[in-house]
Amino acid sequence: MDKNNDSEEISLKELILKLRSGFNYIKSKWAIILLSGILGGALGLLYSIFKKPIYTATSTFVLEENKTGGLSQYASLASMAGIDIGGGGAGGIFQGDNILELYKSRVMIEKTLLTPVNINGKNELLIDRYIDYNKLRNKWKEKDHIVSISFNGNPEKFNRKQDSIITNIVELFNKKVLNVEKLDKKLSIIKVDVATSDELFSKAFNIKLVETVNDFYTQTKTKKSYQNVQVLQKQADSVKRILNYSIGGVASAIDAAPNANPLLQTLRVPSQKKQVDVQANSAIYSEIVKNLEISKISLRQETPLIQVIDDPVLPLPIDRLSKSKGVILGGFLGGFLIVVLISVRKFFDIILK
Protein backbone atom coordinates (compact mmCIF):
# COMPACT_ATOMS: atom_id res chain seq x y z
CA MET A 1 0.00 0.00 0.00
CA ASP A 2 2.77 2.41 0.93
CA LYS A 3 4.64 1.55 -2.24
CA ASN A 4 1.60 2.34 -4.34
CA ASN A 5 1.20 5.67 -2.57
CA ASP A 6 4.86 6.43 -3.11
CA SER A 7 4.60 5.57 -6.80
CA GLU A 8 1.52 7.77 -7.16
CA GLU A 9 3.27 10.64 -5.40
CA ILE A 10 6.31 10.19 -7.61
CA SER A 11 4.17 10.15 -10.75
CA LEU A 12 2.33 13.29 -9.70
CA LYS A 13 5.59 14.97 -8.80
CA GLU A 14 7.11 14.01 -12.15
CA LEU A 15 4.03 15.33 -13.97
CA ILE A 16 4.25 18.69 -12.19
CA LEU A 17 7.98 18.92 -12.92
CA LYS A 18 7.41 18.11 -16.60
CA LEU A 19 4.64 20.71 -16.87
CA ARG A 20 6.87 23.28 -15.20
CA SER A 21 9.74 22.36 -17.48
CA GLY A 22 7.48 22.67 -20.54
CA PHE A 23 6.19 26.03 -19.36
CA ASN A 24 9.72 27.31 -18.82
CA TYR A 25 10.69 26.04 -22.26
CA ILE A 26 7.80 27.87 -23.89
CA LYS A 27 8.60 30.99 -21.87
CA SER A 28 12.15 30.86 -23.13
CA LYS A 29 10.80 31.15 -26.66
CA TRP A 30 9.03 34.43 -25.89
CA ALA A 31 10.76 36.26 -28.70
CA ILE A 32 9.47 33.79 -31.33
CA ILE A 33 5.97 33.87 -29.79
CA LEU A 34 5.98 37.67 -29.75
CA LEU A 35 7.17 37.81 -33.34
CA SER A 36 4.47 35.34 -34.39
CA GLY A 37 1.85 37.40 -32.56
CA ILE A 38 2.98 40.56 -34.33
CA LEU A 39 2.97 38.77 -37.68
CA GLY A 40 -0.50 37.37 -36.99
CA GLY A 41 -1.75 40.82 -35.99
CA ALA A 42 -0.37 42.27 -39.24
CA LEU A 43 -2.09 39.54 -41.26
CA GLY A 44 -5.33 40.19 -39.34
CA LEU A 45 -5.05 43.89 -40.14
CA LEU A 46 -4.53 43.17 -43.84
CA TYR A 47 -7.49 40.77 -43.83
CA SER A 48 -9.77 43.38 -42.24
CA ILE A 49 -8.66 45.95 -44.85
CA PHE A 50 -9.12 43.79 -47.95
CA LYS A 51 -12.08 41.74 -46.73
CA LYS A 52 -15.22 43.01 -48.46
CA PRO A 53 -18.04 44.01 -46.11
CA ILE A 54 -21.18 41.87 -46.25
CA TYR A 55 -24.53 43.62 -46.68
CA THR A 56 -27.57 41.70 -45.45
CA ALA A 57 -31.02 42.47 -46.88
CA THR A 58 -33.89 41.14 -44.76
CA SER A 59 -37.56 40.67 -45.58
CA THR A 60 -40.24 39.28 -43.31
CA PHE A 61 -43.68 38.11 -44.34
CA VAL A 62 -46.61 36.26 -42.86
CA LEU A 63 -48.15 33.23 -44.52
CA GLU A 64 -51.94 33.36 -44.42
CA GLU A 65 -53.83 30.30 -43.31
CA ASN A 66 -56.65 28.77 -45.33
CA LYS A 67 -60.11 30.19 -44.89
CA THR A 68 -62.53 27.33 -45.31
CA GLY A 69 -65.71 28.76 -43.71
CA GLY A 70 -67.87 31.55 -45.11
CA LEU A 71 -68.89 29.86 -48.38
CA SER A 72 -70.67 26.80 -47.01
CA GLN A 73 -74.04 28.35 -47.80
CA TYR A 74 -73.12 28.29 -51.48
CA ALA A 75 -71.74 24.75 -51.54
CA SER A 76 -74.87 23.02 -52.78
CA LEU A 77 -75.46 25.64 -55.46
CA ALA A 78 -71.86 25.53 -56.63
CA SER A 79 -71.80 21.73 -56.71
CA MET A 80 -74.58 21.83 -59.31
CA ALA A 81 -72.09 23.40 -61.70
CA GLY A 82 -69.26 21.12 -60.60
CA ILE A 83 -67.41 23.87 -58.73
CA ASP A 84 -65.22 23.10 -55.71
CA ILE A 85 -65.07 26.13 -53.42
CA GLY A 86 -63.31 24.45 -50.50
CA GLY A 87 -60.21 26.61 -51.03
CA GLY A 88 -57.77 24.20 -49.42
CA GLY A 89 -56.72 21.91 -52.24
CA ALA A 90 -53.39 23.53 -53.11
CA GLY A 91 -52.49 24.81 -49.68
CA GLY A 92 -50.90 21.61 -48.42
CA ILE A 93 -47.77 21.93 -50.53
CA PHE A 94 -47.00 25.25 -48.83
CA GLN A 95 -47.71 24.28 -45.25
CA GLY A 96 -45.03 23.64 -42.64
CA ASP A 97 -41.42 23.86 -43.80
CA ASN A 98 -42.24 23.31 -47.48
CA ILE A 99 -42.45 27.06 -48.05
CA LEU A 100 -38.87 27.37 -46.76
CA GLU A 101 -37.65 24.80 -49.26
CA LEU A 102 -39.56 26.57 -52.02
CA TYR A 103 -37.45 29.68 -51.39
CA LYS A 104 -34.28 27.59 -51.73
CA SER A 105 -35.36 25.73 -54.86
CA ARG A 106 -33.43 26.12 -58.09
CA VAL A 107 -36.56 27.22 -59.97
CA MET A 108 -37.25 30.19 -57.68
CA ILE A 109 -33.61 31.31 -57.43
CA GLU A 110 -33.09 30.93 -61.18
CA LYS A 111 -36.24 32.91 -62.01
CA THR A 112 -35.10 35.65 -59.66
CA LEU A 113 -31.57 35.76 -61.09
CA LEU A 114 -32.96 36.04 -64.62
CA THR A 115 -35.22 38.95 -63.64
CA PRO A 116 -34.27 42.36 -65.14
CA VAL A 117 -33.95 45.20 -62.62
CA ASN A 118 -33.03 48.87 -62.75
CA ILE A 119 -30.03 49.69 -60.55
CA ASN A 120 -28.61 53.21 -60.65
CA GLY A 121 -30.45 53.89 -63.91
CA LYS A 122 -29.06 50.77 -65.62
CA ASN A 123 -31.31 47.89 -66.70
CA GLU A 124 -29.63 44.52 -66.24
CA LEU A 125 -30.34 40.97 -65.18
CA LEU A 126 -29.62 40.19 -61.54
CA ILE A 127 -27.36 37.33 -62.60
CA ASP A 128 -25.29 39.72 -64.75
CA ARG A 129 -24.98 42.09 -61.80
CA TYR A 130 -23.79 39.23 -59.58
CA ILE A 131 -21.30 38.01 -62.18
CA ASP A 132 -19.88 41.48 -62.79
CA TYR A 133 -19.25 42.55 -59.20
CA ASN A 134 -17.68 39.16 -58.41
CA LYS A 135 -15.56 39.40 -61.61
CA LEU A 136 -16.51 35.87 -62.56
CA ARG A 137 -16.10 36.45 -66.29
CA ASN A 138 -12.35 36.91 -65.85
CA LYS A 139 -12.13 33.65 -63.89
CA TRP A 140 -14.12 31.77 -66.52
CA LYS A 141 -11.94 33.22 -69.26
CA GLU A 142 -8.73 32.02 -67.60
CA LYS A 143 -9.96 28.70 -66.24
CA ASP A 144 -12.69 27.50 -68.60
CA HIS A 145 -11.81 29.59 -71.68
CA ILE A 146 -15.30 31.11 -71.78
CA VAL A 147 -14.86 34.37 -73.69
CA SER A 148 -18.46 35.59 -73.56
CA ILE A 149 -21.74 34.24 -72.24
CA SER A 150 -25.23 35.70 -72.06
CA PHE A 151 -28.30 34.76 -70.03
CA ASN A 152 -30.86 36.60 -72.12
CA GLY A 153 -33.55 34.57 -73.82
CA ASN A 154 -35.58 31.51 -72.90
CA PRO A 155 -34.03 29.56 -69.98
CA GLU A 156 -35.37 26.32 -71.46
CA LYS A 157 -33.03 26.81 -74.42
CA PHE A 158 -29.88 27.43 -72.37
CA ASN A 159 -26.87 25.32 -73.25
CA ARG A 160 -24.88 23.08 -70.93
CA LYS A 161 -22.47 25.83 -69.83
CA GLN A 162 -25.25 28.25 -68.98
CA ASP A 163 -27.11 25.62 -66.95
CA SER A 164 -23.90 24.62 -65.19
CA ILE A 165 -23.13 28.23 -64.19
CA ILE A 166 -26.65 28.75 -62.84
CA THR A 167 -26.45 25.47 -60.90
CA ASN A 168 -23.18 26.53 -59.26
CA ILE A 169 -24.59 29.95 -58.34
CA VAL A 170 -27.74 28.36 -56.87
CA GLU A 171 -25.63 26.00 -54.74
CA LEU A 172 -23.50 28.91 -53.54
CA PHE A 173 -26.58 30.93 -52.66
CA ASN A 174 -28.04 28.10 -50.60
CA LYS A 175 -24.76 27.65 -48.73
CA LYS A 176 -23.60 31.21 -48.11
CA VAL A 177 -25.95 33.88 -49.49
CA LEU A 178 -29.55 32.91 -48.79
CA ASN A 179 -31.05 32.09 -45.41
CA VAL A 180 -34.77 31.42 -44.92
CA GLU A 181 -36.19 30.58 -41.51
CA LYS A 182 -39.20 30.90 -39.27
CA LEU A 183 -38.77 33.43 -36.47
CA ASP A 184 -40.75 31.16 -34.17
CA LYS A 185 -42.15 27.67 -34.72
CA LYS A 186 -45.45 28.80 -33.21
CA LEU A 187 -45.73 31.78 -35.57
CA SER A 188 -46.29 32.01 -39.32
CA ILE A 189 -43.75 34.83 -39.77
CA ILE A 190 -40.89 33.88 -42.10
CA LYS A 191 -37.64 35.81 -42.51
CA VAL A 192 -35.58 35.90 -45.71
CA ASP A 193 -31.95 37.07 -45.53
CA VAL A 194 -29.71 37.74 -48.53
CA ALA A 195 -26.07 38.51 -47.68
CA THR A 196 -23.59 39.61 -50.37
CA SER A 197 -20.79 42.13 -50.77
CA ASP A 198 -22.97 44.26 -53.12
CA GLU A 199 -25.50 46.29 -51.14
CA LEU A 200 -27.74 47.10 -54.11
CA PHE A 201 -27.74 43.49 -55.32
CA SER A 202 -28.66 42.20 -51.86
CA LYS A 203 -31.67 44.48 -51.70
CA ALA A 204 -32.84 43.90 -55.28
CA PHE A 205 -32.46 40.12 -55.11
CA ASN A 206 -34.26 39.91 -51.78
CA ILE A 207 -37.25 41.90 -53.03
CA LYS A 208 -37.47 40.04 -56.35
CA LEU A 209 -37.16 36.63 -54.68
CA VAL A 210 -40.07 37.36 -52.36
CA GLU A 211 -42.11 38.67 -55.30
CA THR A 212 -41.28 35.60 -57.40
CA VAL A 213 -42.26 33.14 -54.69
CA ASN A 214 -45.34 35.23 -53.89
CA ASP A 215 -46.52 35.10 -57.52
CA PHE A 216 -45.80 31.38 -57.83
CA TYR A 217 -47.58 30.69 -54.56
CA THR A 218 -50.64 32.74 -55.57
CA GLN A 219 -50.90 31.18 -59.02
CA THR A 220 -50.57 27.65 -57.67
CA LYS A 221 -52.93 28.17 -54.77
CA THR A 222 -55.64 29.78 -56.88
CA LYS A 223 -55.14 27.76 -60.05
CA LYS A 224 -58.27 25.66 -59.66
CA SER A 225 -60.52 28.59 -58.74
CA TYR A 226 -59.06 30.68 -61.56
CA GLN A 227 -59.74 27.91 -64.07
CA ASN A 228 -63.33 27.66 -62.79
CA VAL A 229 -63.79 31.40 -63.30
CA GLN A 230 -62.37 31.20 -66.83
CA VAL A 231 -64.62 28.26 -67.81
CA LEU A 232 -67.76 29.84 -66.34
CA GLN A 233 -66.95 33.19 -67.94
CA LYS A 234 -66.68 31.54 -71.37
CA GLN A 235 -69.96 29.69 -70.79
CA ALA A 236 -71.68 32.90 -69.69
CA ASP A 237 -70.41 34.77 -72.77
CA SER A 238 -71.50 31.93 -75.06
CA VAL A 239 -75.02 31.65 -73.56
CA LYS A 240 -75.41 35.44 -73.63
CA ARG A 241 -74.65 35.50 -77.36
CA ILE A 242 -77.23 32.77 -77.96
CA LEU A 243 -79.75 34.63 -75.77
CA ASN A 244 -79.24 37.83 -77.72
CA TYR A 245 -79.68 35.89 -80.95
CA SER A 246 -82.92 34.34 -79.61
CA ILE A 247 -84.29 37.75 -78.60
CA GLY A 248 -83.52 38.99 -82.08
CA GLY A 249 -85.28 35.94 -83.51
CA VAL A 250 -88.46 36.73 -81.55
CA ALA A 251 -88.47 40.26 -82.87
CA SER A 252 -87.90 39.02 -86.43
CA ALA A 253 -90.76 36.49 -86.17
CA ILE A 254 -93.15 39.18 -84.91
CA ASP A 255 -92.03 41.58 -87.62
CA ALA A 256 -92.72 38.89 -90.24
CA ALA A 257 -96.45 39.12 -89.47
CA PRO A 258 -97.06 42.62 -88.10
CA ASN A 259 -100.82 42.61 -88.57
CA ALA A 260 -101.55 38.94 -88.08
CA ASN A 261 -105.17 37.80 -87.91
CA PRO A 262 -105.87 36.86 -84.27
CA LEU A 263 -107.92 33.91 -85.47
CA LEU A 264 -104.91 32.40 -87.32
CA GLN A 265 -102.84 30.79 -84.53
CA THR A 266 -100.31 29.31 -86.93
CA LEU A 267 -98.89 32.77 -87.52
CA ARG A 268 -97.86 32.95 -83.86
CA VAL A 269 -95.95 29.65 -83.82
CA PRO A 270 -92.55 31.01 -85.01
CA SER A 271 -92.51 33.82 -82.44
CA GLN A 272 -93.66 31.48 -79.64
CA LYS A 273 -90.87 28.99 -80.49
CA LYS A 274 -88.33 31.79 -80.33
CA GLN A 275 -89.85 32.94 -77.03
CA VAL A 276 -89.33 29.45 -75.56
CA ASP A 277 -85.65 29.64 -76.57
CA VAL A 278 -85.36 33.04 -74.90
CA GLN A 279 -86.86 31.75 -71.66
CA ALA A 280 -84.64 28.63 -71.61
CA ASN A 281 -81.48 30.58 -72.37
CA SER A 282 -82.43 33.21 -69.78
CA ALA A 283 -82.73 30.52 -67.08
CA ILE A 284 -79.41 28.94 -68.09
CA TYR A 285 -77.66 32.30 -68.22
CA SER A 286 -79.03 33.22 -64.77
CA GLU A 287 -77.65 30.02 -63.19
CA ILE A 288 -74.26 30.37 -64.87
CA VAL A 289 -73.95 33.97 -63.66
CA LYS A 290 -74.76 32.87 -60.09
CA ASN A 291 -72.10 30.17 -60.22
CA LEU A 292 -69.65 32.59 -61.81
CA GLU A 293 -70.07 35.06 -58.94
CA ILE A 294 -69.60 32.25 -56.39
CA SER A 295 -66.39 31.18 -58.13
CA LYS A 296 -65.14 34.79 -58.14
CA ILE A 297 -65.83 35.02 -54.39
CA SER A 298 -63.80 31.85 -53.87
CA LEU A 299 -60.95 33.27 -55.96
CA ARG A 300 -60.92 36.54 -54.03
CA GLN A 301 -60.97 34.63 -50.75
CA GLU A 302 -57.76 32.79 -51.62
CA THR A 303 -55.69 35.84 -52.65
CA PRO A 304 -53.38 37.40 -51.59
CA LEU A 305 -51.73 34.53 -49.74
CA ILE A 306 -48.47 36.16 -48.62
CA GLN A 307 -48.43 39.48 -46.76
CA VAL A 308 -45.02 41.18 -46.64
CA ILE A 309 -44.31 42.84 -43.29
CA ASP A 310 -40.87 44.38 -43.82
CA ASP A 311 -38.85 45.09 -46.96
CA PRO A 312 -35.10 45.76 -46.97
CA VAL A 313 -34.29 49.47 -46.70
CA LEU A 314 -31.00 51.20 -47.50
CA PRO A 315 -28.55 51.45 -45.88
CA LEU A 316 -28.40 47.73 -45.17
CA PRO A 317 -26.78 46.28 -42.03
CA ILE A 318 -23.06 45.69 -42.57
CA ASP A 319 -21.06 42.73 -41.32
CA ARG A 320 -17.47 43.95 -41.28
CA LEU A 321 -14.31 42.95 -39.40
CA SER A 322 -12.87 46.10 -37.78
CA LYS A 323 -9.14 46.78 -37.93
CA SER A 324 -8.69 46.56 -34.16
CA LYS A 325 -10.56 43.26 -33.99
CA GLY A 326 -8.53 41.93 -36.92
CA VAL A 327 -5.25 42.82 -35.16
CA ILE A 328 -6.35 41.26 -31.86
CA LEU A 329 -7.69 38.05 -33.41
CA GLY A 330 -4.74 37.74 -35.77
CA GLY A 331 -2.22 38.30 -32.97
CA PHE A 332 -3.94 35.80 -30.68
CA LEU A 333 -4.14 33.12 -33.37
CA GLY A 334 -0.51 33.70 -34.42
CA GLY A 335 0.75 33.38 -30.85
CA PHE A 336 -1.48 30.39 -30.11
CA LEU A 337 -0.41 28.48 -33.21
CA ILE A 338 3.31 29.00 -32.54
CA VAL A 339 2.86 27.85 -28.92
CA VAL A 340 1.15 24.68 -30.17
CA LEU A 341 3.89 24.13 -32.73
CA ILE A 342 6.66 24.59 -30.14
CA SER A 343 4.91 22.26 -27.70
CA VAL A 344 4.43 19.52 -30.29
CA ARG A 345 8.04 19.79 -31.40
CA LYS A 346 9.29 19.56 -27.80
CA PHE A 347 7.04 16.56 -27.19
CA PHE A 348 8.45 14.66 -30.16
CA ASP A 349 12.04 15.54 -29.11
CA ILE A 350 11.37 14.00 -25.71
CA ILE A 351 9.93 10.84 -27.27
CA LEU A 352 12.85 10.43 -29.66
CA LYS A 353 15.36 10.77 -26.79
Automatic annotation (TrEMBL):
Highest taxon listed in the record's lineage: Bacteria
Chain ranges passing through the membrane: 30-50, 326-344
Pfam families associated with the record: Wzz
Domain Polysaccharide chain length determinant N-terminal span(s) in chain numbering: 9-70
Signal sequence annotation: none
One annotated Gene Ontology cellular component of this protein: plasma membrane
Localization of this protein: Cell membrane
Keyword RNA-binding part of the UniProt annotation: no
Keyword hit for Membrane: yes
Alphabetic keyword roster: Cell membrane, Membrane, Transmembrane, Transmembrane helix
Membrane topology note: Multi-pass membrane protein
Protein name: Lipopolysaccharide biosynthesis protein
Species assigned in the record: Mucilaginibacter arboris
Lineage: Bacteria, Pseudomonadati, Bacteroidota, Sphingobacteriia, Sphingobacteriales
